[in-house]
Fold this protein.
Amino acid sequence: MVVAIASVGGARSGAEAFGGGGQAARQESRPLAIDSLGATDSYVFYCAPCHGRSGKGDGPVAPSLRSRPADLSTLAERNGGTFPRERVAAYITGIGRPITAHGTSEMPVWGPAFRALDATDRRAAVRVSAIVDHLESLQPSDNGAVLYREHCARCHGASGRGGASAVNSRKAPPDLTKYAMRNGGIFPSEHLAQIIEGRDAPSHIDGGMPVWGDTFRRAATDASREKAQARIEALVRFLQSIQERPAE
């Protein structure tokens, strides 16, 4: 949550701190804290200026930062399909190690800041917990890690390098962790989406892979192409998250 803390003893709202409000921000007296401890209120006030209301890193202050804020809606997807609640809380508080897809060195240490702004440790702890609640609510019901385990791991393995059913295939499944390395360091997201959907099935195990686009459309309660496409995109994001990187 890259909003702004000037020091442990003082803070400014995100838009003012990073210049997003311009002249209007300088003329307007902004509160340093809000009374509400509600999950949505706390997230919107402290986090949304940079991470956006949906958590995708597209808040109004984001363009002025050195690096784009993390997409917080993929925290569960990029951490094995389970929302890492305790680790997220520790990271926000300032006592945890970095979490995949969450935060950079630009993110303030909110623990001391909240304790200063909220006057008591108890209120600060409640606020952190409320923000974590809101972040958990931003996670999509379908996430790529869960979809991968349900539909792909049997052949491709939990790690993406081959599973128990791979020996029964006419051709060994590819190592899914090396797509970027095989493609000059660029992850071929569109090509993989086509393969998963079934538009490029012959290139994948000689047609041995199911046409997941059709499967997802049948499984969707509304039988919508949009629902199926969202699942395909979630799988592609998960595959991107497990790519090997060359040794530096």
Remarks:
- The beta strands are 4-7, 10-12.
- The two ends are 29 Å apart (CA to CA).
